Amino acid sequence: MPIIKFHSRAEARQLFIMVKLSAVGATSLLWVQPQKRSSPIMTGSSYFSQHSSIVIKSLVEDKTKLYPHQKEGLLKILDMGVKGELLPERRRGDGGAAFLLVGVGCGKTVILQATPYLLGSHVRGRQVIFLSDNCTLRQRVMDDFPTKKAGKQYFPDQGKWPLYKYGLLNPGTPPPQIAELKPEINTYKFSIDKADILVVNRQFLINLVKNVAIDPQKVGLIVVDEAHHSAAATYRAIFNYFNQASLVFLTGTRHRGDGEPLPFVKYEIVEEEEENGRIVTKRAPRPNFEFTIQDAWKLDPPIIKKIAFSPARSEGFKVEEDGEEREYTAQDFFIKAETDRQWFRQCILANSFCEPVLDRAVEVLELKRQEKRPHRMIIRALNIPHAERLHKLCQNYDLLKGRVGLIHSQMDEYDSEGRPSDVLEKFYKDEYIALIHVSMVGEGFNEPYASVSVPLCVMRSIQKAEQEFGRIIRKVEGGIPENDADFKAENLAVVVTHEALGIAELFEKFKAGEEATAIEDDLEEEQAEFGRSRFLTDDYHAGHNLLHINSTDRLEKGDQLTVKKYDSEGKEKRYYFSVEEIIGEGTLQVAPVEENIPKDSLARKSSNIENSSTQFKGHVGLEWYLFIDGEYVTLTDYCKKEAVRRKGFKIDENGEIARLDGKKIKDFGPELYQLALEGIAREAEKIEIPYTKLVSCRPDREKEDLQKSYLKKINKAINGFLSSHAKLIAYLPSLM
To answer: Which sequence ranges form a coiled-coil region, renumbered to this chain (predicted)?
Structure first.
């Protein structure tokens, strides 16, 4: 039983109540105790602090209509708040924000709306920001606060707000004042000060920050929706500006495609099994609370649709090139798609390949639309020409004729205010019952009756599978099927694709979820170092040779430290320190750098640099070097490795170019191997040097030259002091 701490005896008396813990089937009494504060917390003047006890009481007395996992997530946020874990001074590279992972369709909205009430007495400012990554997601947040018209004015339609609908607020509780901030409406200037909640997208908020249009001291809490985007540099600039705000991150996506870490979130090292059976270690965020779609399927009944897989077949893997069909093996097609992007953007999966899939998809959709049920399907195309071809093919079906929408990057999916385009609006209204897209239906798309997914595309990552299949699993009214063959069932989503596209394995992974084992306590030294969170405990001043960090464990003379710093706009810079001595716990003597670096900046041990035995013989065949993560890499090798990575390949232990599953490219034949090499060479020409200050053509002398430079500055400073105080120095002996 957790201890919940309150900040005053009055607050403790107010909430000293019996709590029925339905999750464990027991009745317990909360033990409360006053907590000392290190800094002022908002009391009384905030709308949320005034009404927080209503929400907390409804929650702990089990008087809401929430699912158990929603209550558990909200209680976790409350627990972190009363313990002071979300205070802004607790922000570190490895913590300070609440991170909740809640799957698609699992009730994240009510958690977002209730969070300000739970933390109302535990934050410093009276205002809350609901921060979305784009205009579409911002509009989605506003849609969950519906209004109704009375005369010429609009008023909150409280009965439809999740807060009232699920019993967190009683009907007599006044709603908060909400302002949607967007450039299209310049009334935001007077709305900002009046509002309790500011709903805004990232790009517009960063503009307001640059113009100092919002008082950062008034904002006590930022709740970030779809928070896996928050690794972007602009988010860090926003968080730095609102330095008195507590942070709560909500998302249904565990991993970013680029692997960039989220700020102020704890990470751990986990073991996962790759497609080829190899066990690998990777870094993963550690949620404070987690409820995935796989957890939702385990409930009885599930709170989302069940999902089934129904592949179609045809003779051969056929692609249309220059108006003629050409047959490939699946492997040859995927390799060419990965190595020749120009070809991939223009090729079309042949009609004979697509038609069996469309036949099957239309058959499933006809079953689901019986008895006038408005089920719809989403078709993902390979590229824009393929999407346009599929649109024509769909007109051959009586069910789809004139009822198919098409969106891609050359069309507007949403307008500048995040409202759906005409195509999407018709899909939402059931005027279009099929929607063809090219990587355009993602976050912000919300149509529960989208129940059939038709991926006629290349899909190789679990992230893409989650994005595509997650669009069709929101629950609708009706029963849950007893088996996966009942395609008529209201709450059975169906994926229809071609078996040759190899999507079956991804589908099974999507159903099973990620299986990862935390191995923090059993890591080898280099793995442990990768997962260890180090940060500066004091500001580093340019030219100084002392660096203060939270832990010197496993560090020794000669090690390299990489330190990350973010500027006012959130852009990342890296600095590299060579450890010369360990002065004591938390203090290192280092080779200095010429930049100021603030405390709390992340630091990570890099691989040691071995002294080169190579002698400099002149400028013949000179090679440039990059100093990356503590290692010197030739510019040629860097460009090659980066090009290989961008093309979706890797360099194996024998130096061979291979697919991620370990199969060597040259084993697919000389023609495809040569094609792959040419594609990599073209990509290598596009590679830019990541940071010009890291370039060196004399790695064996770089450290020595840096030390000489600082020694000259020190000598100059000493000589200057001696010259300017020569008379005083000469007079000192007479005083002794």
So the answer is: none
DSSP string for 140-154? HHHHTS-EEEETTEE
Which amino acid, one-letter code, is at 257?
G
Alpha carbons 45 and 37: distance in angstroms, whole number: 18
Average pLDDT over residues 18-45: 39
What angle, 0 to 180 degrees and rounded to 10, lies between the N-to-C axes of helices 233-241 and 202-210?
Answer: 50
Listed in sequence order, the DSSP H helices in 580-701 are: 635-646, 670-685
Tell me, rounded to whole angstroms, the distance of Cα 123 from its chain centroid.
Answer: 25
Specify whether the backbone of 34 is left (phi greater than 0), alpha (psi in -120 to 50) or beta.
beta
> Where does 541-646 show beta strands of DSSP type E?
546-548, 560-566, 572-584, 587-590, 602-606, 625-628, 631-634
Going by C-alpha positions, the residue among 243, 234, 244, 292 that lies closest to residue 100 is 292
Round to the nearest angstrom and report the end-to-end CA distance of the chain.
70
Sign for the CA dihedral angle at 188, 192, 196, 200 comes to positive
Alpha-carbon distance 728 to 724, whole Å?
Answer: 9
- C-alpha gyration radius of the chain: 30
Tokens of 345: 């953007």
In the block, tokens 């989208």 appear at: 450
Report the C-alpha gap between 563 and 606 in whole angstroms: 10
The residue with tokens 């929603």 is: 70
Structure tokens at 387: 């999407």
The amino acid that residue 172 corresponds to is G
Tokens of 456: 């006629």
Which position has the token pair 């369709």?
A: 105
DSSP 288: S
| pLDDT beyond 70 at 724 | no
Q: How many CA atoms lie within 13 A of 613 on its CB side?
A: 0
Tokens of 518: 């935390």
Q: Is 316 left (phi over 0), alpha (psi -120 to 50) or beta?
A: left
Query: Distances from the Cα of 497 to the Cαs of 330, 358, 455, 458, 489, in angstroms?
Result: 14, 8, 6, 11, 20
Of 340-344, 400-404, 479-483, 508-512, least confident by mean pLDDT is 340-344
Q: pTM of the entire structure? A: 0.67
User: Strand 4-6 and strand 404-407: pairing?
Assistant: unpaired
Q: In this predicted structure, what is the pLDDT of residue 533?
A: 61
Q: What is the distance between the alpha carbons of residues 404 and 356, in angstroms, rounded to a whole number?
A: 18
The beta strand positions in 252-323, using DSSP E, are: 267-273, 279-285, 289-291, 306-309, 317-321
Question: How far is Cα 87 from Cα 319, in angstroms, rounded to an integer?
Answer: 57
Specify the amino acid at residue 523.
Answer: L
Task: Give me the percent of the chain exceeding a pLDDT of 90.
Answer: 37
Lowest mean pLDDT segment, chosen from 206-220, 285-299, 447-461, 548-562: 548-562
Which residue type does 192 have? I
